Amino acid sequence: MAAPLLQAEIDINAPVAEVWSLISDLTNMPKWSPQCRLMKAFGEVRPGTRTFNINRRNSLFWPTTSTITELIPERKLAFRVNANNTVWSYELEPTATGTHVVETRHAENGVKAVSTMTVNAVLGGVPGFEKELVDGMNTSLARIKAAAER
Fold it and tell me: pTM here?
């Protein structure tokens, strides 16, 4: 069963190239995301590149790996979290005043059962965790906006 599409979007008063440079540099991910503490790519960032990540929620830390699934310069960056099969993406669209950015978490084939079980047991349940993820997306986009508009 497909999990709900989680999404947030923002308009940034900066050119697409500038916003893209912030988003496509994966070492910046901990600056944007309230949950991500590390995202390390193994090699040049392109489709197929794997990353090692560390996430945090309060005093709980957990590692994940992901694989870049799509990279269209100045348009789209997407990666699949291998532990749960979710695909996270950033899509950029030029506007009259800068850039429109949409961040999405997509689980077309559902989230892996073991991941759902873990979220229910350790992270307070799926509905609350998904709300927290959307709040985190909005925080991430606001932080990217602030950095791009500086």
Answer: 0.92
The partner residues of 7 in beta bridges, in order of sequence, read 104
Domain boundaries, the chain: 6-149
Say how far apart CA 76 and CA 60 lie, in whole Å: 30
Whether the CB-CB separation of 64 and 57 falls below 8 Å is answered with: no
- Taking the C-alpha atoms of residue 71 and residue 81, their distance in angstroms, rounded to an integer, is 15
Distance CA 10, CA 16 (A): 13
Q: Please, which residues have CB within 8 angstroms of residue 38's CB and are 6 or more apart in sequence?
A: 29, 30, 52, 53, 54
Residues of the chain with pLDDT under 70: 1-2
What is the per-residue pLDDT for 1?
56
145 DSSP assignment: H
Phi first, then psi: give them for residue 38, nearest 5 degrees. Answer: -160, 140
Q: How many CB atoms lie within 10 A of CB 105?
A: 22
> Which CATH number applies to 6-149?
3.30.530.20
